[in-house]
Write a structure and sequence with these properties.
The protein is of the alpha+beta class. The protein has one domain: Immunoglobulin-like, CATH 2.60.40. The chain has helices spanning about 5-25, 240-250, 250-265; strands at about 35-40, 65-70, 75-80, 85-95, 105-110, 125-130, 135-140, 145, 155-165, 165-175, 195-200, 205-210, 225-230. Strands 1, 2, 3, 4, 5, 6, 7, 8, 9, 10, 11, 12 and 13 form a 13-stranded mixed beta sheet that branches. The chain is globular, with a radius of gyration of 18 Å.
Length: about 270
């Protein structure tokens, strides 16, 4: 009735449905914008934080997510592994290749994925202004207040380069947050977590973000890191297949393994 490939696909699909139903039964909710969700994968390539693709395969272990707006860009996001728990991002803004003092990058995330109309105390924002200055903010319940990250916690570099994602020179940001301290920037809880990515070119007024139309000040508009995979992203698969297979590898035992590991790191 089924060939070997079809049978494997059906089995993976069945496991994925069972896992997702169990997650729903446990009451895990998506408080951000569920129309924009991604899966968290462990990285297999060590990223060199120099604002460019140091090796041709440096970021091939991350899902590529489109940013929208009157500028065009893409980003990738990984967790380093389930022991170190460091977070990695690459963000590329294809329409910006000039240096303006009011340019900025933004990475926002909502640790508890509880959304809201204003940044809460489990919400954080990393903001890089003018390609020179990194600032970190924590929500207060009504807005943002600046905080000081741990020494050496965040490594970042941006530069104007071409990449496998876009052949013309453009701004590329690489950033790694390796904090183990609860209450600092690193997300201490497993997905679902809210997240938002944005880039702004002050010279042209062009802006790109994920999700489209989201605001740093309104967590309800952010996207969702909805699940995580215990295995690196499968190479050569379509985004739909990767989502399906990552759901199949998400296990409840893995969820509690990561949660217990993070408790020990606090």
């Amino acid at each position: 009735m089924f060939g070997e490939i079809e049978l494997k696909f059906v089995c993976a699909y069945a496991r994925a449905l069972g896992i997702l139903l169990l997650i729903a039964t446990l009451g895990i909710a998506y408080a951000g914008n569920p129309a924009y969700s991604i899966t968290e994968y462990p990285s297999i390539n060590t990223a060199t934080v120099d604002g460019k693709w140091t090796a041709p395969d440096e970021w091939t272990d991350t899902p590529i997510t489109e940013m929208a707006g009157n500028g065009t860009g893409k980003f990738g996001y990984n967790i380093q592994d389930f022991t170190n728990l460091g977070l990695e991002w690459i963000i590329e803004f294809f329409t910006d290749n000039t240096t303006d003092p009011n340019d900025y990058w933004e990475i926002c995330f909502d640790d508890g994925n509880d959304g809201g109309g204003a940044p809460d105390t489990d919400d954080f924002m990393i903001r890089i202004i003018g390609h020179t200055t990194l600032k970190v903010y924590k929500g207060t319940g009504t807005g943002w207040e600046e905080i000081t990250p741990d020494p050496g916690e965040i490594a970042w570099k941006d530069s104007i380069n071409s990449s496998p994602w876009h052949s013309q020179p453009h701004w590329i940001l690489e950033i790694v947050d390796s904090s183990k301290t609860a209450g600092k920037v690193q997300i201490p809880n497993p997905p679902p977590t809210g997240m938002r990515i944005a880039a702004y070119d002050a010279g042209t007024g062009k802006f790109a973000s994920w999700p489209p139309g989201s605001s740093a000040n309104i967590p309800n508009t952010w996207g969702v890191v909805s699940t995580y995979s215990l295995e690196p992203i499968p190479e050569g698969l379509s985004p739909a297949s990767a989502i399906l297979l990552s759901a199949a590898t998400l296990t409840i035992s893995g969820y509690f393994y990561r949660k217990n590991r993070q408790k020990n790191n606090k």
